[in-house]
Amino acid sequence: MHTPKTALVAGAGGFIGSHLVKRLKKEGFWVRGVDLKYPEFSETAADDFVIGDLRDPYFCRSVIDMRFDEVYQLAADMGGAGFVFTGENDADIMHNSALINLNVLDACYKRNVKRIFYSSSACIYPKHNQMDPENPKCAEDSAYPAAPDSEYGWEKLFSERLYLSYHRNYGMEVRIARYHNIFGPEGTWRGGREKAPAAICRKVAMAPDGGEIEIWGDGKQTRSFLYIDECLEGTIKLMRSDFTGPVNIGSEEMVTIDQLAQMIIEISGKKLSIKHVPGPQGVRGRNSDNRLIREKLGWAPSMPLRKGLEITYAWIKEQVEKAKR
């Protein structure tokens, strides 16, 4: 009888991880999910889901107890600007995420797991290349000399090097993607760790028609946002390619935060005004540079931002209404 391929998803209780589990199940994989928590918004699709702390090397080795065909390491201490840029969570971010990566990689090495995917971030790019909101430089080879704008970015950069050194020294097939602002339904939308698209969708959904929403900073900072389905497509394409990375997985459709807000307001059908308030905002400009992914994988994300926002806004509006009840 044909035995299904096996995958382990670390961080399977999170937004990207829970979607990735569903995707792998559709492909016929047997999937084990691991996280500190179950997915918040729907039942996990994993065959086996283990609650536990990957900062603990013993727990880590207990869940990586066989030679998985594919391991996806998405687990991290994670959040949007309100979590990453205040400075209050720096020690936790560096300590927790680095420990998880050290443990997962070591456990995979000891089980002779060959193929492991690591989700890095656009936050590793040097701050000085992202001062001009019109013209950020985020080509993969611009990462060095390193100068990320946050400890979150520094930890991601350290971990990229950690994975690459296991690749060089132990022949492990590591795959590294630098994610750029992934969004979509079933992502965190309140509580302080949510990212800009979800936060703005929530504010718009909660605002009365004719009211106003608050945006951090002057609203002229630029970003690109990638819909979850495209993120999964790129992740799986990279995992099964012969390219190690690091490579950007992001959209090249750059918008200002004000434009993002206007788009969501239009989708909602409300008339709302924007009030700019002081708040953490990160670099001035960031956008995915997709030249390398096109060259190496013959693919790049193409879904228009608005289409992803329509789906996401509808889902968050529903959550807001549920919460009211």
Outline? globular
**Could you give the order of strands across the largest sheet?**
3-2-1-4-5-6-11
What is the CATH class designation of the largest domain?
Answer: Alpha Beta
User: First CA to last CA: what distance?
Assistant: 50 Å
Number of helices: 10
Helix content: 25-40%
Assign the CATH architecture of the largest domain.
3-Layer(aba) Sandwich
**CATH domain topology of the largest domain:** Rossmann fold
Structural class: alpha/beta
Per DSSP E runs of 2 or more residues, the count of β-strands stands at 13
Rg over CA atoms: 19 Å
Q: What string, H for helix and E for strand, traces the elements in order?
A: EHEEHEHHEHEEHEEEHEEHEHH
- Share of residues in strands: 15-25%
The biggest sheet amounts to: 7 strands, parallel
Count of spatially separate domains: 2
Organism: Thermodesulfitimonas autotrophica
InterPro entries: Epimerase_deHydtase, NAD(P)-bd_dom_sf
Pfam family, one: Epimerase
Domain NAD-dependent epimerase/dehydratase: 7-250
Q: Would you mind describing this structure in some detail?
A:
- With 325 residues, the protein is α/β, with parallel strands linked by helices.
- It has 2 domains: 201 residues, NAD(P)-binding Rossmann-like Domain (Rossmann fold); 86 residues, UDP-galactose 4-epimerase, domain 1, CATH 3.90.25.
- 39% of the residues lie in helices and 17% in strands.
- The strands form 4 sheets. A 7-stranded parallel beta sheet has the order 3-2-1-4-5-6-11, with helices on both faces. Strands 7-10 form a two-stranded parallel sheet. Strands 8-13 form a two-stranded parallel sheet.
- Strand 5, helix 5 and strand 6 form a beta-alpha-beta unit.
- Helix 1 crosses helix 7, helix 6 packs across helix 8 and helix 6 crosses helix 10.
- The chain is globular and about 60 Å long.
- It starts with 5 loop residues before the first strand and ends with a helix.
